[in-house]
Amino acid sequence: MTLRLRPTMLSDLDWVVSVERDGANLPFITPWERTQHEGAIRFPDSRHFIVEGGDQPDRIGFVILQGCRNPNGSVELKRLVLQAKGRGLGRAAVRQLKALAFTQLKAHRFWLDVKALNTRAQRLYESEGFVEEGRLRESVRVTVDGADGYDSLIVMSLLDREYQARVALGQEAL
Ligand SMILES: CC(C)(COP(=O)(O)OP(=O)(O)OC[C@H]1O[C@@H](n2cnc3c(N)ncnc32)[C@H](O)[C@@H]1OP(=O)(O)O)[C@@H](O)C(=O)NCCC(=O)NCCS
Question: Can you list the pairs that 34-37 forms with residues at least 24 positions away whose Cβ atoms lie under 8 Å?
Answer without folding.
Answer: 37/8, 37/13, 37/64
